[in-house]
Structure prediction request, 508 residues.
Amino acid sequence: MSDMPSCQFESRPRRIVIGAGGAQTDFCTTCSVRPTSVCSVIGPDDISRLSEAAVETIIPPGRGFIEEGAPATDFFNVTSGTVKLFKALPDGRRQITGFASPGHFLGLAVSDNYAFGAEAVDTVRVCRFSRDKMADLLDDFPKLERRLLEEASNELVAAQNQMLLLGRKTARERVASFLLDQMHASQLPGQENGGRLHLPMTRGDIADYLGLTIETVSRTLSWMRSQGMIEVGKGYAITILSVAKLDVLAAGNS
Amino acid sequence: MSDMPSCQFESRPRRIVIGAGGAQTDFCTTCSVRPTSVCSVIGPDDISRLSEAAVETIIPPGRGFIEEGAPATDFFNVTSGTVKLFKALPDGRRQITGFASPGHFLGLAVSDNYAFGAEAVDTVRVCRFSRDKMADLLDDFPKLERRLLEEASNELVAAQNQMLLLGRKTARERVASFLLDQMHASQLPGQENGGRLHLPMTRGDIADYLGLTIETVSRTLSWMRSQGMIEVGKGYAITILSVAKLDVLAAGNS
DNA sequence: CGGGTAGTTGATGGTCATCAAGGGGGGTGG
DNA sequence: CCACCCCCCTTGATGACCATCAACTACCCG
Prediction:
C-alpha cells in the first residue's frame, strides 16, 4: 500500500486544434465539468490559455498520484472518477480526509510539499497544471483567485463537519452521516434517484474515512439493513430506504 | 452552555485621528498583529481604509460572539487572546475545531450563515469587519484575496492533521500532539522558552478539541507526568520536560 | 481449480466513556 | 475574616463500544 510507486502518470498532452479562421478551439470548451469547476471563471475568449496550461491525465484505479510530503509540483482538477485524499501515520494507520469528485480542485497548499496523499478510487481523469503555469493564470485572472478562495472555504466547512463526526459521533451516526452526504453529493440539483447510491469506494476506504474499522462499517451497514433503513446490493450499490431514519441517526440519536 | 446569549459585543468604534498635515493616523498603524495578519497586505498609504472598516471589540472570557447557524454578518481578526471555534450536535456534544490566536482571521464562509460557533477563551480583542466593507476591501485590494487564500490553505492543512488525530490516534498520541502543537504555536521564531507553556483553555476545552473526555485528558496528563515527560503546574501552566518522548508518542508509538 | 481480494459474521478483549467521590482555588456575602 | 459555593481538576470503579482476531463466503481472474 505504501510501497506502491506513486506519481506515475499516463499523460497525453492536450491537442490544440487550429480552426479555419486561426481561432483556437480545444478540449476545455467541451469539458463536462467546466461549468461547475474553477475553470468556469475563465471566459470563452481566454479559454485557450487554460488549455495550454492543462495536461489531461488518466489514472487507473488504486494508483497514487500525490505522495504525502513530496514536492508540490502540480495542481489537479478532477474531471471524472473519484479520488481519495489521505494522511498516514508511520505505522500505516491511515485517515482519508476527503473524496474528490469531478469538478474538485486539488493541491491547495502554501507549503512546497504536499500535505496529503491522493489515490484514484476508480478510473480517474484529471487536468494537471504545473505550479508555474498556475501562478501565471492566477496573476492574469483575478477571478480565479476568488473562486479558489470559495473552493477552499467550502472544503473548510466540510472539514469542520468531518471533525465533528470523527471526534464526537458514534459508529452508527458516522455511517448514517456518510450515506446522507453521499446521497446529496450524487444528486444533481433538482434530480431524485430513489435513494439509489453507487459508492465507488471499498469498505476499507469508508472505514478509513470515518475513523472506524472495516468490520464495524460492515456490521453497521448490516444493522441498518436489519432496521429497514437501507438495502445493500451487490458490488457497491446501496439503496436508502428511509432518509428520515438516517437523518435521526446522523443528527445524533444513538 | 447553549443558552448563553451570544453576539453581545462591547464595541468601541475606532477613533480616526486627524494629524497636523491632514494625514490620517489611526489604530491600525500601531496594531501589534498587523505584521502577521492578513492586514499586512494593505500598505501604509491605504491603511486608513482599513481603519475605517474595522471596529475593535473586546470580548470577556466565556462569551460567545459567533453562533453556529446565525446569519454571517461579520468577519473578525483576532488581535489578542484566544478564541475557540466549535460545532455542536443537538444533544450538546461539542467538537472544538480549532483555537484562533492573535493574527487569525475568522469568518471564511461562502454560505450566508456561520458554519461554526466562536467563543472567547480568555479576554479577547478582535477587529470586526462587516460583510459589505470586507467585500469592498476585497474588490480594491487583490492582494488581500491572495492572502486569505493562503490563510484558508493553512487552515485546511491544520484541519487535515486534526482529522488524522481524531480518526486514528490514541488518547496518549492526541494529547502529545496537542502539547507539541501548542509549543510550536507559542514559540515566536527564534525563541525558546524552556518548554514552558501557558494553556489558556480548560481541560474541558482540550477534551472537546481532542475528541476525548475531561477525565481522559486529566488521566493522560497525569500519566505523562509519571513518565517524566511533562510537569503540571498550578493553573494552566505545563512544562514540557522531554520533547523527544512526546515526539515519539505523537508520531504514533502507543 | 487455485489464489487473491472484498465482504460478512462471530468471539473476545482493550481503550476510553461514564458514574462517582473528593480536593483545591477564587469569588461573593454574611 | 471566614463560610459557603461553584467551578475546575483529579482519581477510582465499572462498563460500553468498538477494535482485534478469526473463520467463512462470494467473486473475480488467471
Summary: Confidence is low (pLDDT under 50) at residues 1-10, 13-24 of chain A. Residues 170-171, 212-213, 215-216, 219, 234 of chain A lie near DNA strand D (CB under 10 Å from a C1'). The helical segments of chain A are 47-53, 131-140, 142-168, 171-186, 203-210, 214-226, 243-252. The domain at 169-252 of chain A is CATH 1.10.10.10 (Arc Repressor Mutant, subunit A).
